[in-house]
Task: inverse folding
């Protein structure tokens, strides 16, 4: 009986010790689990809030910053397009006239009639030059000649040649026909009349004839049988022809 009682007491103490160990274990578990929950509860919302606070406003701000100016610029372009001014018929005609304006027409607008008619080239015999122009144009007859070709042949600049052409036209020596040549407006010069030159009669005997008062077509002394005129004509024919 005593042994059985001792055994029961030992088992009871063992059970108590086991219970005490379980209680300690439970306490440890209970004390550790609230900390984890608290950490989770404290950490997770904070992270999400921080993310939301950091990310969302930034995105919205970025969107606003990127979108609003673009919209305003687009509106400005659409609202204020550049409208081309519609030209009147008179303005279009004036533009066309300026595009087709030649050097001669520009000079006519700039110079007076007196300046054109009294045009002189320094150290150049204008009568001789005019005769040379007439000789060249006479060879072309009614076909005329492009003024650019004529100035090249006479070794004149376009500026001087254009003034000369205006002068000769005012004198009634030539006519000018405006035409389009190689996509440029120019003039064809046509001889209208040969200018009077005294060179052909400079040595004529009639100017100093001693019997001029007795000379007549039907008289004894007549140009038809004048020995002076005959000698003068033969002398002129014997002269060498000057190169043009």
Result:
């Amino acid at each position: 009986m005593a042994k059985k009682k001792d055994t029961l007491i030992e088992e009871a103490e063992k059970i108590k010790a086991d219970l005490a160990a379980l209680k300690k274990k439970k306490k440890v578990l209970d004390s550790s689990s609230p900390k984890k929950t608290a950490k989770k509860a404290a950490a997770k919302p904070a992270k999400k809030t921080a993310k939301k606070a950091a990310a969302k406003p930034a995105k919205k701000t970025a969107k606003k910053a990127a979108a609003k100016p673009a919209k305003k610029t687009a509106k400005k372009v659409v609202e204020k397009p550049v409208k081309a001014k519609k030209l009147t018929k008179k303005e279009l005609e004036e533009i066309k006239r300026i595009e087709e304006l030649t050097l001669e027409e520009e000079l006519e607008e700039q110079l007076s009639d007196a300046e054109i008619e009294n045009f002189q080239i320094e150290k150049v015999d204008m009568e001789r030059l005019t005769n040379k122009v007439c000789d060249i144009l006479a060879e072309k007859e009614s076909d005329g000649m492009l003024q650019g070709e004529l100035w090249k042949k006479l070794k004149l600049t376009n500026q001087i040649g254009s003034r000369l052409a205006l002068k000769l036209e005012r004198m009634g020596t030539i006519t000018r026909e405006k035409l389009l040549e190689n996509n440029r407006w120019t003039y064809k010069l046509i001889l209208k009349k040969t200018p009077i030159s005294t060179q052909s009669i400079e040595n004529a005997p009639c100017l100093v004839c001693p019997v001029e008062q007795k000379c007549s077509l039907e008289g004894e002394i007549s140009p038809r049988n004048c020995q002076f005129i005959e000698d003068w004509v033969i002398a002129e024919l014997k002269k060498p022809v000057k190169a043009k």
